[in-house]
Each structure stands twice: as C-alpha cells, then as structure tokens.
Design a protein that fits this description.
The complex is a heterodimer of chains A (about 475) and B (about 450). Chain A has two domains: about 230 residues, PmbA/TldD superfamily (PmbA/TldD fold, 2-Layer Sandwich); about 230 residues, no CATH class. In chain A, about 20% of the residues lie in helices and about 40% in strands. Chain A contains ten helices and 23 strands. With about 450 residues, chain B is α+β, with helices and mostly antiparallel strands. Chain B has two domains: about 210 residues, PmbA/TldD superfamily (PmbA/TldD fold, 2-Layer Sandwich), CATH 3.30.2290.10; about 230 residues, no CATH class. Chain B is built from ten helices and 18 strands. In chain B, strands 3-2-1-4-5-6 form a six-stranded antiparallel β-sheet. The longest helix of chain B has 18 residues. Classes of the chains: A alpha+beta (about 475), B alpha+beta (about 450). The interface between A and B is large, with 89 and 81 residues.
C-alpha cells in the first residue's frame, strides 16, 4: 500500500527563491524596458495545493497539484503590457519579457538603462507556520473529515447529507522591478469547510461553517472540526422551522464576527484607488469628509497574525501594513496599488494583489474590519423593537458607482419587542453604502474577526478577511417574501 | 513558450494511459490555450494581456478509489509526476462501487465548427482598434455618458481526453467578445449600464448594439427611486433570464440528485413548471457560447430535453452520477479546468421561445417591474431549499408601458414557485457569453421589497 507523499522532501515548503537568480532578473528587466518603457516587473510564483473532499459518506476527491510560472509587466506611459510563462528558465523569462514589452507598445524614448535589482530581501512573516501542511499525511486529513461527518450526522436524525473539505496552499513568490524591488515571500493557507443538509416537513435547509488561516496545520490543535460540523448541522436544523423573511425596510442587527462583508461591500470596494481614479466610486472626491456614522473606524490590515488576507508583502512586493481608511466616520485614505499611487503621488499601502502569476495586480483589500464601539450587544437587541438579527451573513456584491450593495443572510432571526425570536429563511439585504454607513447607530465592544472569504474582482479571486463588533443599522431593506 | 513544434496533446495522453497498471483506470486531460485581453480607457490602451496557459489533469481509479492531480505545465517530467501523484492520492479515497471512467457509448458527435480561422488570423492592432472604436461609439451616443471600462477578450485553445476505457478525443475552439460598462451622470447622481457582443470572429461583433445597450441601461436609470414593496409581476430582461436559467439548471444536476441535494430529486415525471415551459440543454446548437461536440469525459455532447411542457423529463448526468442513478450518462460532464474531477452540469440551456417581443409582453401588464439587472444571485439563492432573493434595478411597468426607473430593491420568491409562475416567454432570443441563452420572461406573483 502506498503511503502518499507526506513528509517527503519534494512536498516541503516550495520556494521560488532559489529558482531565479538576481542577475537573471536584471537581464529580464533590461529586456522588458529595452524599447523605452518606464517600468517593468517580474512576478514569479510556485504554488502547491492539496485538497480532500468528503461528501455523501465518502472521501470522494483527493487532489494535489502545482502551478509554477512568472508574469511580466511592462508599463509604458498609460499602457500596461502583460505576458506570462510557465517556463522559468532565462530563455522563457526573456521571451515573456519581449511579449509584455510588445503588448505595452513602444515608448519612443529610446533604449533605457536600468540598474541592478540589488540583493534580495524576505517578506516579513506575520504568521508563523509551526507545522507545514506538507508534513501531514493524507490519512490524518481523512480522519478530520470523518470526525466532521460524524459530528454533523450526530446532531439530529433530520441531517440527511454532509460534505466537508480540507485543503492547504503553500505559495512562494518572488517579485522584482525596475524600481529596485527584489523580494521573496511565502504564505501558507489552511482551509476547512463543512456543510450539512437537513430535511423536514417544509423541505430542505442548509448549514455551513468554514475556517481559514495563514498558519500551519497546528490550527487543528486548537480548533475542533467536530465543533464546526456540529454548528453547521445546528444551523440547518434551526432553519427547518424558519418562516419566510420579512419584506421591506427595518432595523438590522448583525452579530459580531459574522458581518464584516457588510463593510467590504458598503465601502471597501469603493475605497479602492482604481475606482476612485476612474470616478466610478461614490467615495471619489470625499477625502476628509464625514462618510459614516462617527462610531465607525474602518481599517484594512494585511499584517494581522494568522488572518486569511495576511501576507508579508503584497503581489507587487510592497510590505503589507495597517491602513486606517475611515476614522470616527471621516474618510482618511483610499487603498493603493503601485501604479495608482505613483500617478497620484501617494504612499504605497500594500494593496496591490493578484490571484496567480497569470493575472495583472489590482487594488484589493486584505483584512478589512471595523473597530469596537461603546455599546453592549444585549443592549442593542433590547433597544430594537422590530427588526432582523443576522447571526451569519453570506456573500455580497456592490456597484461602486452607485453604492448599491447586497449581501445574503445565511442565518437570521426576527427581533420582536427587544428579543430574538423566530428563525428566518434565507434572503438578501439591500442597501446603499454611504447611507448604510451613516445609519449605523449602535456599535458594540465585542469585536471579532469572521471566517475566510474570497473576494472577486474582474474575474480574479483573492483571500480576504473581515471583522466587526455587533452593530445595528437603523434601516435596511430586507428582501424576503413575507408581508 | 519553449520553441519548436507544439507537442501533440493526444500523444501526451496516449503515453500516460499506456502506463496504467493492471486493473487501474487512467484518464488524462490535456489542454493548451492562448487568450488576449485589451482594455481601453480615454482612447488609449490601459492594459494588454497576452496569455498562454497549458496543463494536464489526471484521474486514476483503482479498486473503486479515485485520486486526481494536476500541473500547470506540459513539461514531460512534471506530467509523469502528475500520474504518480494521482495514483498516490487514490489510496486515500473511499472505495466506491460507482467510481470509474465512462466508456464509449456509441453516440456520434454532432459536427459543429468551433474554430474560426478568421479570429486566429486577426492582428493585434485590429483588436485594439475594435475596442477603441467601441469606447468612441459609446461616448458619442449621449453627452451624459462616461465609459468605465471597454474590453475586448478572446480565447482559443485545444484539449484532449484519453482514457484506458477507450475514450480518445481532441477538441479545438475559439471565440471573442467585447464588453463595455458605462456611467451616466446627472448632477450628483451616477447610474451604470453594460453591454456586450459575442462572436466567432471580430467581424461578427456588433459594437453599436453593445454601446447602445450600455448607454440605454445607464441613462434610463437616472432618477431611479425605490419602488414600493408589493407582490407583483416581474419581467426579466434576457440577461437576467439567462442567469436564472443557470440556477434552475443546477437544480437538475444528476450529482445533486443522487446525493439528495436537489429540490426536484423526487419529481421526475411530475409537473414542476408552467405548461408553456420547455427547457432544453443543447450544446450541439452552434449559436450557443458554450456549444461543444464533446463533454468533459469525452462523450458526445447531445440535446437533452429537461422540462417538456412543464413536466420534469430528465436530469443531466456525468458517468458517475448516472451509474449511481442506474442510468447512462447524458453527456453532461463538466470540467472546471485541469484540476479536480469532472462534475455533472448543464452545458447550454435554452427555453423554447414564445411569440412576443418584450414590448408586447409589457403591453399586457397593468402593474409590474422590468428587471434589467440583478445582484447577489449567489448570496441570496439557495438551490437546496429553493429560497430565491436578489437585488435588482430596472423600470416600473404601469398600464402596459414602461414608467419611472427603480433601484435598490429585491425580488423574492422560491425556485419552485418561480417555475410555476412563468406566465409568458419572449421571442427575443439573445446569445450571451453564458451557459444559457437569454430571452424576456414574465413571472407572476413575485415579492418586490423596496420602500415600505
């Protein structure tokens, strides 16, 4: 019987660091700007991933794989050319540099001489990895999936289906550019998810929990997957008795650590500098103005230990940092990538990210959250006569130009006379960003980060974190079917 | 990007399959493709992305256990490692009597031309000129318009599937499309709209239609307010209908059915939709963006009637879901790329069209809402419970005509109700870059949530 590849050297943390020498980078960058472009960059990546999926009582998917390659960006005036290759030899990189330079067009400034990228630095490790997932046997992963299935099914006889997945990604990147950046970074991500289906008299309902961190396998020393599975099952069982969600405008209370996506959509995307530069954000031209309730301080922080959106550097080689975007309701900064910051003469904020080496970087969030406020969570519910309590949000989306955004309620309850009462079926909430931010009238002290998210923009998905304390929006539109 | 003649994809498959151990099933999926993306802003190229991708995915089934592995390269040593890795992974799967590869089923592929030499031969400058022209036309249609993005994208590639069970297929396809997203300003207010056009080659793209759609959608929303909450009739624009059909298709997926997750799992042969509803999955219709001659496991793609006159006729199956359901594959295996296992899914959905234009449909409605776009369709629709709630914007309908614009509201029902409440289907087919064709759809008794 084969024992898999766990623990073997070739499954150890991959590093792109040793694959491309700095003098090769010098020659590739020189080729990229040969026709006069003002900026060139090499982004090389080696990503290994393993995932096991459990469904319907079986381990039905065991997958592992590797993606390795480099993307070359050439910026010539206002035009960016991009090409990528999975061939990391000097010849392969030079060919990609030629293609990117051709795509960017001729600068007409004649040959440009670039200096050396200099010695390489390493991104700061904000999240220590004690046990590399590469050292974990697949049989141990199977045991975790079996434990989750067992726990979910034990929660009640109405649980008719359970699926769970466990996966990890080990990503090593190397970024060098004609500004002299030459940096490598490694990030390990571990993800667990479980969903349960319950069947009752009024049809089926679902429950879902997930856990994701930029740490090693040691996360499973402190988190019991069985607890997450039991909670997913509980959510599905609770919803068997759910009534249709109400329809119309009312106060909405969102539980701590479950609704950071509200800010991700209501203002996060709108504070990305590319939307600002194109005038396609409701927050353009509002720096220094009151854009939210004075209770709200919003931070984007790519350095938080262990969080899903954390990395040492962004995907342009800029060290990640903590950026205060809204302070006591006043807009204090946007999020920047390298090109936008250069054009506007701003300081880099570490928000230039991309999904893989095949993609251009864009302005993206990392971990985005609202700081704690003065209220007590129980006081917030007690102060609400009639409304909705959302204990877990689903995904969302926003139109940055109008500010209109939606997000789903995965688990929610009615609030009647200051008390949480009946569970509600699923639905979307809709609101307008600036108005919802202004309508946050209560904010508790119980700050918590939420589960792992994947943020999509222009077809690229990147891992992001979010968080908030329990809060109340005085009025939002609940999209249910009940009168 | 290495030099020399491109490696023959089928030969890579043949080489790996020949190395299967006794009693072991091996499936090799090999793909290679090139794509271009051009974005123009302010009359200049904002970015130009020239991409070449390749990779291999291998599935090994041994003793009922399945393992897969992939690599984003066709480098021979890496390809060999993928086979070994898939084999190693199989040891950790649970033995499943239904696991296995499909065998040739005798169904012939429908010959459809998926490759257009005109696109392959289009020079870069022409693509840039095309999208520059799209931005120019859009800006020229209305003085209140700004362009957020104007994009040209194309992709072309080939893939091969070879198995130890006798499947050996090669496929080649390409296509292109343009999209434009417009901003309409009026004082402090901004509204947005988008338009696109899809074609086999750049010459097929209708830039004016894409520009006009974007401009009309954005400008007609200026001054929009929240509609009052009520139950009413909604008309879905073709683009919205295509998104809703995609969701309905996922409830008819054989894999969800055999795993007990489809809300229609026990309803075969029963009425689940209004009598006028006939839903077909037909990837052999060359007009569909997702048209194909073979499915993700190498069987012939075929026309399957899923709902006939409101009656649920069939679920779509891959080899695995079909074996579990005691039936045969309908040629509906879908791959998400080189990684992972193919699942079951609809390939190219079409509703049988009705006889009326959108204008004629609206003329018959006294009170309602025309929904021109939806948001949050993935956060507010649960395909297991059937709950359906999405954000929306559009136009109010009053006395048989379009009235004031409306936004920041939701429409809600259940998928079960929605199918039964389909009152009319438009004749206005729109071929979109999606897995379903669009047309106007009239649905009665939907809850609109806006102002109280």
């Amino acid at each position: 019987m084969r024992t898999g590849t766990a623990g073997r050297g070739r499954e150890g943390p991959p590093s792109i660091d040793g694959v491309i020498d700095s003098d090769v980078l010098d020659r590739v960058l020189a080729r990229a700007v040969r026709t006069g472009a003002g900026f060139a960059e090499v982004f090389a990546e080696d990503r290994r991933s393993t995932s096991l999926a459990f469904d319907d009582g079986r381990v039905d998917r065991v997958t592992s794989g590797r993606d390795r390659g480099a993307g070359i960006r050439v910026v010539n005036g206002s035009t960016t050319g991009y090409a990528h290759t999975s061939d990391l030899t000097e010849a392969g990189l030079l060919a990609a540099a030629e293609a990117a330079a051709a795509a960017a067009g001729s600068g007409g400034a004649g040959e440009r001489v670039v200096g050396s990228v200099g010695s390489r630095t390493e991104g700061r490790r904000h999240s220590p990895v004690l046990t590399s997932p590469g050292d974990i046997a697949k049989s141990d992963r199977v045991d975790l999936l079996l434990a989750a299935d067992d726990a979910a099914r034990s929660a009640g006889s109405e649980i008719v289906q359970v699926s769970a997945g466990i996966g990890d990604t080990r990503r090593s990147v190397l970024i060098a550019n004609t500004d002299g950046v030459n940096v490598s970074d490694e990030v390990t991500r571990v993800l667990f998810r479980v969903s349960a289906v319950a069947d009752g008299d009024a049809g089926m309902q679902t429950g879902y929990r997930s856990l994701g961190h930029t740490v090693g396998w040691e996360i499973f020393d402190t988190v019991e997957v069985a607890d997450l599975a039991a909670d997913a099952a509980r959510q599905a069982l609770v919803k068997l008795a759910a009534r249709p969600a109400p329809s119309g405008s009312m106060p909405v209370v969102i539980k701590n650590g479950s609704g950071g996506v509200l800010f991700h959509e209501a203002c996060g995307h709108g504070l990305e500098a590319d939307h600002i530069a194109k005038g396609s954000s409701v927050y353009a031209g509002r720096m220094g103005e009151l854009v939210a309730s004075p209770l709200v301080t919003l931070v984007d922080d790519g350095t938080m230990t262990g969080e899903w959106g954390t990395a040492g550097v962004d995907d342009e080689g800029t060290p990640t940092q903590r950026n205060v975007l809204i302070s006591d309701g006043v807009l204090t900064d946007y999020m920047w990538d390298l090109l936008r910051a250069r054009r506007e003469g701003r300081t880099l904020s570490g928000n230039g990210r991309r999904e893989t080496y095949e993609c251009l970087p864009m302005v993206r969030m990392t971990n985005t959250f609202v700081l704690a406020g003065p209220h007590d969570p129980d006081e917030i519910i007690a102060a609400t006569d009639h409304g909705v309590y959302v204990s877990e949000l689903g995904g969302g989306s926003v139109n940055t130009a109008t500010g209109d955004f939606v997000f789903g309620m995965r688990e929610a309850y009615l609030i009647e006379n200051g008390r949480i009462t009946e569970p509600l079926r699923e639905g979307n909430l809709i609101g307008n960003g600036p108005k919802v931010l202004a309508d946050i009238d209560m904010l508790a002290g119980d700050f918590a980060m939420g589960g792992p998210g994947t943020c999509g923009k222009d077809g690229q998905g990147v891992p992001v974190g979010d968080g908030q304390p329990t809060l109340r929006v005085s009025s939002m539109t609940v999209g249910g079917t009940a009168a | 990007m290495s030099g020399g003649a491109p490696v023959d994809l089928l030969s890579i498959g043949d080489r790996l399959v020949a190395r299967a151990a006794p009693g072991e099933q091996v499936e090799v999926f090999v793909a290679r493709g090139d794509s271009t993306e051009v974005r123009v802003w302010g009359g200049e190229v904002e970015h130009f992305v020239s991409a070449h991708s390749e990779g291999v995915g291998v599935r090994v089934v041994s003793g009922g256990r399945t393992g897969t592995s992939y690599a984003g390269t066709l480098d021979p040593a890496a390809v060999d490692e993928v086979l070994m890795e898939a084999r190693a992974n199989a040891a950790f799967g649970t033995a499943d009597e239904y696991a296995g590869l499909v065998e040739p089923d005798g169904v012939d592929t429908v010959p459809i031309e998926l490759w257009d030499e005109r696109l392959a031969a289009t020079p870069t400058e022409d693509k840039i000129a095309l999208v520059t022209e799209l931005e120019r036309i859009t800006l020229g249609l209305d003085p209140r318009i700004r362009v957020d993005d104007a994009d040209y994208s194309d992709g072309g590639g080939e893939s091969a599937i070879v198995t130890t069970t006798g499947i050996r297929r090669h496929r080649r396809a390409n296509s292109c499309h343009v999209t434009v997203s417009a901003l309409a300003d009026d004082g402090d207010e901004t509204q947005t709209g988008f338009g696109f056009s899809v074609g086999d080659a750049p010459g097929d793209l209708d830039l004016t239609e894409a520009a006009r759609d974007a401009v009309d959608r954005a400008t007609r929303l200026l001054g929009a307010t929240k509609p009052r909450s009520r139950r009413t009739t909604v008309v879905l624009d073709p683009f919205v209908t295509a998104q809703v059909l995609g969701i309905i298709g996922s409830t008819l997926n054989g894999e969800s059915v055999v795993k007990g997750r489809s809300l229609f799992r026990d309803r075969l042969g029963e009425t689940i939709a209004a009598p006028g509803v006939t839903l077909v999955d037909d990837p052999t219709d060359a007009r569909a963006f997702t048209a194909t001659d073979v499915d993700g496991e190498g069987l012939a793609a075929r026309r399957n009637v899923l709902i006939d006159g409101g009656r649920l006729e069939r679920f779509v199956h891959s080899g695995y879901s079909a074996r579990r359901a005691g039936t045969v594959s309908t040629g509906n295996a879908i791959r998400g790329g080189i990684a992972g296992l193919p699942g079951a899914g609809c390939l190219a959905l079409q509703l049988s069209p009705g006889a009326s234009s959108q204008e004629e449909l609206i003329a018959g409605i006294d009170d309602g809402v025309l929904v021109q776009s939806v948001s949050g369709i993935h956060s507010g629709v649960n395909t297991v419970s059937g709950d359906f709630s999405t954000g929306a914007s559009g136009m109010s309908i009053s006395g048989g005509a379009l009235g004031a614009p409306v936004r920041e509201f939701t429409i809600a029902t259940t998928l079960q109700r929605l199918l039964l409440d389909i009152a009319e289907i438009g004749a206005d087919l729109r071929w979109l870059p999606m897995r379903a064709v669009g047309m106007s759809l009239v649905i009665g008794d939907v809850t609109v949530s806006g102002s109280s």
